[in-house]
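Q: I have 149 residues here and want to know how they pack in 3D. Can you give me a structure?
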Amino acid sequence: MRFLILLMIAGVSVPYLVSAKEDSHDSFSPHHTLGFMISHTQVSQGVQTNGNKKWLSLPSWALNYNYKFSPKWAIGLHNDIIVEDFVVQEHLKNSGGETLERSYPVASAVMASYKPGKYFSFILGAGGEFAHTGNLFLIRIGAEYSYHI
């Protein structure tokens, strides 16, 4: 429990300290950020117990590290763990639409981030999803909105 509290404080404190440093200077300096999130992961190919396909919203935790090397660009390692068991429809060439069970998978991806303006960032990366039931390749794309409080 102490470790969890420490991670939450670090996730809130590090970006705040970095932002405060950026606001006090007009010039950019490369820096590291660490973020901790409690969120929901969206799975489009989920399968219910009766066999019907359904979009799933599953609880997850995330720990993200980024290195911002220019005012607009950053690279990082984003790690998520889905804290639930679920079933998805397999889409490999020879699977025939079979189902694949996933049990507490951990997803890690190397991400590139581009910030065209002051608040929005666009992210793209690739990595893997690892679970004892099998490993999968993943591609992640997203958009983030951040605002300094």
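Q: Anything worth noting?
A: Residues 9 and 36 are 9 Å apart (CA to CA). The radius of gyration is 18 Å.
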